[in-house]
Amino acid sequence: MTSSSPKPASVKASLPEPVLNDKNGILMTNRRWPIEQWARPWSLPGYRNGAMMLAGIVLGILAGGALIGELSKWGDRLYALMGSFAAAKGISTVAVEAVWIAIKVLIVLHVILLNGLWSIWWERKISAHIQSRVGPTYAGGFHGWAQTILDGVKLFLKEDITPAAADQWVHALAPAIVIAPCIAAFAPVLFGSELAAARLDVGALYIFAFAGISVIGVVMAGWASGNKYSLLGGLRAAAQIVSYELPRGFSVVPVIMFAGSLDLSVIVSAQSGFWWGMAPRWFVFYPVVGQVAFLIFLIASIAETNRTPFDIPEAESELVGGFHTEYSGMKWSVFFLAEYAYVLLGSFLLATFFLGGGGSPLPWTPFTLVPSWVWMLAKAMLMMFVFLWVRWTLPRLRVDQLMDVNWKFLLPWSFANIALAGLYLAFWLK
Amino acid sequence: MMSAYAAVYAFALMGAGFAAVVLIAAKVFRPSVPYARKESTYECGIPAVGSSEVKLNIRFHAFALLFVLFDVELLYVYPWAVAARELGRVALLEMGAFLAVLFLGLAFAWRKGALSWE
Question: Are the beta carbons of A422 and B92 separated by less than 8 Å?
Answer without folding.
Answer: yes
